[in-house]
Write a structure and sequence with these properties.
The chain is of the alpha/beta class. The protein contains 13 helices and eight strands. About 45% of the residues are buried.
Protein backbone atom coordinates (compact mmCIF):
# COMPACT_ATOMS: atom_id res chain seq x y z
CA UNK A 1 0.00 0.00 0.00
CA UNK A 2 1.33 3.45 -0.89
CA UNK A 3 2.23 5.64 2.02
CA UNK A 4 0.63 9.02 2.57
CA UNK A 5 3.44 11.51 1.79
CA UNK A 6 5.34 12.96 4.72
CA UNK A 7 4.47 16.34 6.16
CA UNK A 8 6.00 19.35 4.51
CA UNK A 9 9.17 20.78 5.98
CA UNK A 10 8.67 23.03 8.97
CA UNK A 11 10.06 26.57 8.91
CA UNK A 12 10.05 29.56 11.30
CA UNK A 13 6.88 31.17 9.92
CA UNK A 14 4.64 28.11 10.06
CA UNK A 15 1.90 28.05 12.67
CA UNK A 16 2.79 25.65 15.47
CA UNK A 17 0.61 22.58 15.90
CA UNK A 18 -0.30 20.76 19.07
CA UNK A 19 -0.33 16.97 19.06
CA UNK A 20 -4.12 17.04 18.61
CA UNK A 21 -3.92 19.60 15.78
CA UNK A 22 -1.41 17.45 13.90
CA UNK A 23 -3.47 14.30 14.44
CA UNK A 24 -6.68 15.92 13.15
CA UNK A 25 -4.90 17.29 10.10
CA UNK A 26 -3.30 13.94 9.32
CA UNK A 27 -6.73 12.32 9.57
CA UNK A 28 -8.28 14.83 7.17
CA UNK A 29 -5.36 14.46 4.77
CA UNK A 30 -5.83 10.68 4.83
CA UNK A 31 -9.53 11.09 4.03
CA UNK A 32 -8.70 13.42 1.17
CA UNK A 33 -5.85 11.42 -0.32
CA UNK A 34 -7.19 7.90 0.32
CA UNK A 35 -10.98 8.05 0.44
CA UNK A 36 -11.67 10.56 -2.33
CA UNK A 37 -9.65 8.68 -5.01
CA UNK A 38 -11.52 5.48 -4.14
CA UNK A 39 -14.87 7.24 -4.47
CA UNK A 40 -13.77 8.72 -7.79
CA UNK A 41 -12.76 5.27 -9.03
CA UNK A 42 -16.27 4.05 -8.25
CA UNK A 43 -17.99 6.84 -10.15
CA UNK A 44 -15.66 6.36 -13.14
CA UNK A 45 -16.66 2.70 -13.24
CA UNK A 46 -20.33 3.67 -13.14
CA UNK A 47 -19.81 6.15 -15.96
CA UNK A 48 -18.07 3.76 -18.36
CA UNK A 49 -20.11 0.67 -17.45
CA UNK A 50 -23.61 2.15 -17.49
CA UNK A 51 -23.96 5.92 -17.92
CA UNK A 52 -21.82 6.32 -21.05
CA UNK A 53 -23.36 3.30 -22.88
CA UNK A 54 -26.84 4.56 -22.00
CA UNK A 55 -26.13 8.02 -23.37
CA UNK A 56 -24.56 6.55 -26.48
CA UNK A 57 -27.64 4.45 -27.08
CA UNK A 58 -29.90 7.49 -26.74
CA UNK A 59 -27.73 9.38 -29.26
CA UNK A 60 -27.66 6.75 -32.01
CA UNK A 61 -24.22 5.49 -31.10
CA UNK A 62 -22.59 8.92 -30.82
CA UNK A 63 -20.18 9.53 -27.95
CA UNK A 64 -21.49 12.33 -25.72
CA UNK A 65 -18.73 14.80 -24.88
CA UNK A 66 -20.72 17.76 -23.51
CA UNK A 67 -19.89 17.94 -19.80
CA UNK A 68 -23.32 19.45 -19.08
CA UNK A 69 -25.15 16.42 -20.43
CA UNK A 70 -22.75 14.09 -18.66
CA UNK A 71 -23.36 16.00 -15.42
CA UNK A 72 -27.13 15.66 -15.72
CA UNK A 73 -26.80 11.91 -16.14
CA UNK A 74 -24.19 11.44 -13.41
CA UNK A 75 -26.02 13.55 -10.83
CA UNK A 76 -28.99 11.19 -11.04
CA UNK A 77 -26.86 8.57 -9.26
CA UNK A 78 -27.03 8.66 -5.43
CA UNK A 79 -23.45 7.35 -5.27
CA UNK A 80 -22.14 10.30 -7.28
CA UNK A 81 -24.04 12.81 -5.16
CA UNK A 82 -22.52 11.16 -2.08
CA UNK A 83 -19.05 11.31 -3.65
CA UNK A 84 -19.24 15.01 -4.44
CA UNK A 85 -20.89 15.91 -1.15
CA UNK A 86 -18.12 14.06 0.68
CA UNK A 87 -15.52 15.98 -1.31
CA UNK A 88 -17.03 19.27 -0.15
CA UNK A 89 -17.33 18.15 3.48
CA UNK A 90 -13.67 17.06 3.59
CA UNK A 91 -12.59 20.35 2.04
CA UNK A 92 -14.47 22.33 4.68
CA UNK A 93 -13.22 20.04 7.44
CA UNK A 94 -9.64 20.61 6.27
CA UNK A 95 -9.96 24.35 6.75
CA UNK A 96 -11.78 23.94 10.04
CA UNK A 97 -8.76 22.11 11.46
CA UNK A 98 -6.38 24.74 10.04
CA UNK A 99 -8.32 27.72 11.39
CA UNK A 100 -8.33 26.08 14.83
CA UNK A 101 -4.53 25.90 14.60
CA UNK A 102 -3.89 29.41 13.29
CA UNK A 103 -6.54 31.44 15.11
CA UNK A 104 -4.88 31.43 18.58
CA UNK A 105 -1.56 32.48 17.02
CA UNK A 106 -2.71 35.41 14.86
CA UNK A 107 -0.98 38.21 16.75
CA UNK A 108 2.12 36.12 17.38
CA UNK A 109 2.47 35.26 13.68
CA UNK A 110 1.99 38.89 12.68
CA UNK A 111 4.65 39.98 15.17
CA UNK A 112 7.01 37.30 13.92
CA UNK A 113 6.52 38.42 10.31
CA UNK A 114 7.39 41.99 11.33
CA UNK A 115 10.38 41.09 13.48
CA UNK A 116 12.20 38.46 11.44
CA UNK A 117 15.60 39.65 10.13
CA UNK A 118 15.38 41.29 6.71
CA UNK A 119 17.78 42.15 3.96
CA UNK A 120 17.76 39.36 1.40
CA UNK A 121 14.73 40.43 -0.62
CA UNK A 122 12.08 43.12 -0.28
CA UNK A 123 8.37 43.70 0.27
CA UNK A 124 6.38 46.48 -1.37
CA UNK A 125 2.71 46.80 -0.42
CA UNK A 126 0.13 49.13 -1.97
CA UNK A 127 -2.70 50.05 0.44
CA UNK A 128 -4.52 51.78 -2.41
CA UNK A 129 -4.67 48.65 -4.60
CA UNK A 130 -8.21 47.52 -5.30
CA UNK A 131 -8.28 43.74 -4.95
CA UNK A 132 -10.22 42.28 -7.92
CA UNK A 133 -13.69 40.96 -7.25
CA UNK A 134 -12.74 37.55 -8.64
CA UNK A 135 -10.51 37.22 -5.56
CA UNK A 136 -12.89 38.70 -2.98
CA UNK A 137 -16.31 37.47 -4.18
CA UNK A 138 -15.91 33.91 -2.90
CA UNK A 139 -13.77 32.02 -0.42
CA UNK A 140 -11.56 30.36 -3.04
CA UNK A 141 -11.07 26.63 -2.40
CA UNK A 142 -13.41 27.19 0.59
CA UNK A 143 -10.58 28.83 2.58
CA UNK A 144 -12.44 30.91 5.21
CA UNK A 145 -12.12 34.60 4.40
CA UNK A 146 -10.52 33.82 1.07
CA UNK A 147 -6.99 34.80 0.14
CA UNK A 148 -7.16 38.54 0.77
CA UNK A 149 -9.09 38.90 4.04
CA UNK A 150 -7.29 41.21 6.46
CA UNK A 151 -8.66 41.41 10.02
CA UNK A 152 -6.05 43.80 11.45
CA UNK A 153 -2.91 45.66 10.33
CA UNK A 154 -0.10 43.21 9.66
CA UNK A 155 -2.43 40.21 9.40
CA UNK A 156 -0.80 37.08 7.87
CA UNK A 157 -3.54 34.54 8.66
CA UNK A 158 -4.40 33.88 5.00
CA UNK A 159 -0.79 32.93 4.33
CA UNK A 160 -0.44 30.78 7.45
CA UNK A 161 -3.61 28.83 6.59
CA UNK A 162 -2.63 28.49 2.94
CA UNK A 163 0.84 27.19 3.82
CA UNK A 164 -0.47 24.41 6.05
CA UNK A 165 -3.21 23.51 3.55
CA UNK A 166 -0.96 22.72 0.58
CA UNK A 167 0.29 19.41 1.93
CA UNK A 168 -3.25 18.37 2.88
CA UNK A 169 -4.81 19.50 -0.39
CA UNK A 170 -2.28 18.19 -2.89
CA UNK A 171 -1.07 14.60 -2.71
CA UNK A 172 2.70 14.42 -2.44
CA UNK A 173 3.30 18.12 -1.83
CA UNK A 174 5.76 17.52 1.01
CA UNK A 175 9.08 19.25 1.53
CA UNK A 176 9.01 22.94 0.65
CA UNK A 177 5.81 22.53 -1.46
CA UNK A 178 7.58 24.05 -4.48
CA UNK A 179 6.56 21.21 -6.78
CA UNK A 180 4.73 23.45 -9.26
CA UNK A 181 7.74 25.69 -9.83
CA UNK A 182 9.89 22.58 -10.00
CA UNK A 183 7.66 21.18 -12.76
CA UNK A 184 8.17 24.32 -14.86
CA UNK A 185 11.92 24.25 -14.25
CA UNK A 186 12.20 20.58 -15.22
CA UNK A 187 10.31 21.42 -18.39
CA UNK A 188 12.60 24.38 -19.18
CA UNK A 189 15.71 22.33 -18.47
CA UNK A 190 14.60 19.70 -20.97
CA UNK A 191 13.26 21.91 -23.75
CA UNK A 192 15.45 25.04 -23.29
CA UNK A 193 18.53 23.66 -21.47
CA UNK A 194 20.67 26.74 -22.20
CA UNK A 195 18.11 29.25 -20.96
CA UNK A 196 19.58 31.47 -18.25
CA UNK A 197 17.17 34.24 -17.22
CA UNK A 198 18.55 37.39 -15.61
CA UNK A 199 15.21 38.51 -14.15
CA UNK A 200 12.20 36.33 -13.30
CA UNK A 201 8.62 37.30 -12.38
CA UNK A 202 6.09 35.01 -10.69
CA UNK A 203 2.51 36.22 -11.19
CA UNK A 204 -0.07 35.45 -8.49
CA UNK A 205 2.56 33.99 -6.19
CA UNK A 206 0.36 33.50 -3.06
CA UNK A 207 2.91 32.56 -0.35
CA UNK A 208 5.82 32.30 -2.80
CA UNK A 209 6.27 28.54 -2.40
CA UNK A 210 6.69 27.92 -6.15
CA UNK A 211 8.77 31.10 -6.45
CA UNK A 212 11.56 29.65 -4.33
CA UNK A 213 12.22 26.91 -6.87
CA UNK A 214 13.43 29.58 -9.32
CA UNK A 215 15.77 31.13 -6.76
CA UNK A 216 17.23 27.68 -6.14
CA UNK A 217 17.62 26.87 -9.86
CA UNK A 218 18.79 30.32 -11.04
CA UNK A 219 20.76 31.75 -8.09
CA UNK A 220 22.23 34.57 -10.20
CA UNK A 221 18.81 35.81 -11.32
CA UNK A 222 16.83 38.63 -9.75
CA UNK A 223 13.52 37.05 -8.74
CA UNK A 224 10.30 39.04 -8.32
CA UNK A 225 6.87 37.82 -7.27
CA UNK A 226 3.54 39.60 -7.02
CA UNK A 227 0.05 39.04 -5.72
CA UNK A 228 -2.99 41.20 -4.93
CA UNK A 229 -3.23 40.00 -1.31
CA UNK A 230 -1.27 41.86 1.36
CA UNK A 231 -1.70 39.10 4.00
CA UNK A 232 -0.31 36.50 1.59
CA UNK A 233 2.63 38.72 0.64
CA UNK A 234 3.55 39.59 4.22
CA UNK A 235 3.68 35.90 4.97
CA UNK A 236 5.50 35.08 1.71
CA UNK A 237 8.20 37.66 2.35
CA UNK A 238 8.76 36.58 5.96
CA UNK A 239 8.81 32.93 4.86
CA UNK A 240 11.37 33.54 2.12
CA UNK A 241 13.58 35.62 4.43
CA UNK A 242 13.42 32.99 7.17
CA UNK A 243 14.43 30.31 4.68
CA UNK A 244 17.26 32.41 3.23
CA UNK A 245 15.81 33.08 -0.26
CA UNK A 246 16.10 36.58 -1.80
CA UNK A 247 12.77 37.42 -3.47
CA UNK A 248 11.32 40.86 -4.22
CA UNK A 249 7.60 40.74 -3.44
CA UNK A 250 5.16 43.44 -4.50
CA UNK A 251 1.42 43.91 -4.16
CA UNK A 252 0.21 44.35 -7.73
CA UNK A 253 -2.51 43.18 -10.07
CA UNK A 254 -1.03 40.89 -12.73
CA UNK A 255 -3.35 42.50 -15.30
CA UNK A 256 -1.27 45.70 -15.21
CA UNK A 257 1.99 45.99 -13.30
CA UNK A 258 4.39 48.90 -12.83
CA UNK A 259 7.42 47.11 -14.25
CA UNK A 260 8.92 48.55 -17.47
CA UNK A 261 8.50 46.99 -20.90
CA UNK A 262 10.77 44.03 -21.63
CA UNK A 263 12.02 43.83 -18.05
CA UNK A 264 11.91 40.04 -17.51
CA UNK A 265 13.47 37.08 -19.27
CA UNK A 266 11.02 34.65 -17.65
CA UNK A 267 7.41 35.35 -16.62
CA UNK A 268 5.57 32.47 -14.95
CA UNK A 269 2.32 31.66 -13.20
CA UNK A 270 1.24 28.53 -11.37
CA UNK A 271 -2.44 27.54 -11.52
CA UNK A 272 -3.30 31.24 -11.51
CA UNK A 273 -5.38 31.26 -14.70
CA UNK A 274 -8.48 29.54 -13.34
CA UNK A 275 -8.54 31.85 -10.30
CA UNK A 276 -9.06 34.95 -12.46
CA UNK A 277 -11.91 35.94 -14.80
CA UNK A 278 -12.83 36.08 -18.49
CA UNK A 279 -11.69 39.70 -18.84
CA UNK A 280 -8.71 39.39 -16.52
CA UNK A 281 -6.93 36.39 -18.04
CA UNK A 282 -6.48 37.91 -21.52
CA UNK A 283 -5.14 41.07 -19.85
CA UNK A 284 -2.65 38.98 -17.87
CA UNK A 285 -1.44 37.30 -21.06
CA UNK A 286 -0.99 40.70 -22.71
CA UNK A 287 0.92 41.94 -19.66
CA UNK A 288 3.13 38.85 -19.79
CA UNK A 289 3.97 39.68 -23.41
CA UNK A 290 4.70 43.33 -22.58
CA UNK A 291 7.06 42.38 -19.79
CA UNK A 292 9.10 39.89 -21.82
CA UNK A 293 12.57 40.85 -22.94
CA UNK A 294 13.68 39.76 -26.42
CA UNK A 295 14.60 36.08 -26.16
CA UNK A 296 12.35 35.71 -23.12
CA UNK A 297 9.80 33.05 -22.20
CA UNK A 298 6.47 33.07 -20.43
CA UNK A 299 5.12 29.81 -19.01
CA UNK A 300 1.67 29.51 -17.43
CA UNK A 301 1.07 26.12 -15.81
CA UNK A 302 -2.38 24.79 -15.03
CA UNK A 303 -4.41 21.64 -15.61
CA UNK A 304 -5.55 20.67 -19.15
CA UNK A 305 -8.47 22.19 -21.00
CA UNK A 306 -11.72 20.25 -21.34
CA UNK A 307 -11.01 19.26 -24.96
CA UNK A 308 -7.69 17.76 -23.84
CA UNK A 309 -9.20 15.18 -21.48
CA UNK A 310 -11.70 12.34 -21.70
CA UNK A 311 -15.44 12.94 -21.13
CA UNK A 312 -15.52 11.53 -17.58
CA UNK A 313 -12.69 13.79 -16.47
CA UNK A 314 -14.57 16.74 -17.95
CA UNK A 315 -17.37 15.97 -15.53
CA UNK A 316 -14.96 15.60 -12.60
CA UNK A 317 -13.02 18.76 -13.51
CA UNK A 318 -16.10 20.94 -13.70
CA UNK A 319 -17.11 19.91 -10.19
CA UNK A 320 -14.46 22.33 -8.97
CA UNK A 321 -16.83 25.09 -10.02
CA UNK A 322 -19.83 23.40 -8.44
CA UNK A 323 -18.29 22.14 -5.19
CA UNK A 324 -15.00 23.94 -4.51
CA UNK A 325 -15.72 27.68 -4.93
CA UNK A 326 -13.90 27.97 -8.27
CA UNK A 327 -16.24 30.20 -10.35
CA UNK A 328 -13.90 30.58 -13.34
CA UNK A 329 -12.58 27.00 -13.37
CA UNK A 330 -14.97 25.67 -16.03
CA UNK A 331 -15.11 28.83 -18.12
CA UNK A 332 -11.30 28.99 -18.32
CA UNK A 333 -11.08 25.38 -19.48
CA UNK A 334 -13.23 26.20 -22.48
CA UNK A 335 -11.20 29.23 -23.61
CA UNK A 336 -9.33 29.26 -26.92
CA UNK A 337 -5.85 29.80 -25.48
CA UNK A 338 -4.17 29.96 -28.87
CA UNK A 339 -6.41 32.82 -29.97
CA UNK A 340 -5.93 34.63 -26.67
CA UNK A 341 -2.15 34.43 -26.96
CA UNK A 342 -2.26 35.84 -30.49
CA UNK A 343 -4.54 38.64 -29.32
CA UNK A 344 -2.09 39.29 -26.46
CA UNK A 345 0.61 40.11 -29.00
CA UNK A 346 2.40 36.80 -29.56
CA UNK A 347 3.06 35.64 -33.11
CA UNK A 348 1.63 32.25 -34.10
CA UNK A 349 5.07 30.64 -34.12
CA UNK A 350 5.79 32.04 -30.63
CA UNK A 351 2.97 30.07 -28.96
CA UNK A 352 3.25 26.48 -27.77
CA UNK A 353 1.19 24.03 -25.78
CA UNK A 354 2.95 21.26 -23.92
CA UNK A 355 2.21 18.75 -21.21
CA UNK A 356 4.12 17.17 -18.38
CA UNK A 357 3.28 14.26 -16.15
CA UNK A 358 5.37 15.79 -13.38
CA UNK A 359 3.15 15.99 -10.33
CA UNK A 360 3.77 16.68 -6.68
CA UNK A 361 6.53 14.58 -5.17
CA UNK A 362 8.09 13.55 -8.48
CA UNK A 363 11.51 14.87 -9.35
CA UNK A 364 12.01 13.44 -12.83
CA UNK A 365 10.49 14.92 -15.97
CA UNK A 366 8.07 12.42 -17.49
CA UNK A 367 6.07 13.38 -20.53
CA UNK A 368 3.33 11.24 -22.00
CA UNK A 369 4.52 9.25 -25.02
CA UNK A 370 1.38 10.41 -26.79
CA UNK A 371 2.39 14.06 -26.61
CA UNK A 372 5.43 15.52 -28.38
CA UNK A 373 7.47 18.21 -26.68
CA UNK A 374 6.98 21.81 -27.76
CA UNK A 375 3.97 21.02 -29.91
CA UNK A 376 2.35 24.05 -31.42
CA UNK A 377 -0.86 24.96 -29.67
CA UNK A 378 -3.99 23.79 -31.41
CA UNK A 379 -2.90 20.27 -32.30
CA UNK A 380 -4.62 18.97 -29.22
CA UNK A 381 -3.76 15.98 -27.05
CA UNK A 382 -5.22 12.50 -27.13
CA UNK A 383 -8.19 12.27 -24.75
CA UNK A 384 -7.36 10.33 -21.63
CA UNK A 385 -3.63 10.26 -22.36
CA UNK A 386 -2.73 10.61 -18.69
CA UNK A 387 -1.60 14.22 -18.86
CA UNK A 388 -0.52 15.96 -15.70
CA UNK A 389 0.09 19.69 -15.89
CA UNK A 390 -0.46 21.72 -19.03
CA UNK A 391 2.01 24.41 -20.10
CA UNK A 392 0.95 27.49 -22.04
CA UNK A 393 4.21 28.84 -23.42
CA UNK A 394 4.95 32.09 -25.22
CA UNK A 395 8.31 33.23 -26.56
CA UNK A 396 9.65 36.53 -27.79
CA UNK A 397 12.15 36.58 -30.63
CA UNK A 398 15.69 37.47 -29.55
CA UNK A 399 16.01 39.47 -32.76
CA UNK A 400 13.09 41.73 -31.85
CA UNK A 401 13.95 45.27 -30.88
CA UNK A 402 12.91 45.81 -27.27
Amino acid sequence: MNKIPANQAEHPMMARRSHDDAARQRAVRTLRQRLLPKLAFGSREMYYRSVEPGMRERHDGRVVEDFREIRRAMMELPYVRFQLGTHRVIQELMYETLVDTVQPQLEELADKARSLPRGLGSLRLDPALKVPRYVTAVDIHCQPGGYAHEAFPGDVAAGAIYDRSINMYQSGAGGMTEYMGRAVIQYLDKVWPDFKPRRILDLGCTIGHSTLAYVRRFPEAEVHALDVSAPLLRYAHARAEALGFPVHFSQQNAEHTDFPDGHFDLVVSHILAHETASQAWPAILAESRRLLAPGGLTVHIDLPQLDEIDPYRRFIYTNETQFNNEPFWTAYRQMDLHRLMIEAGFAADEVFRDFTAVMAGRDAQKSSDAVAHSRQLGHGAPPGSGLGFAMLVGTRSAAEVA
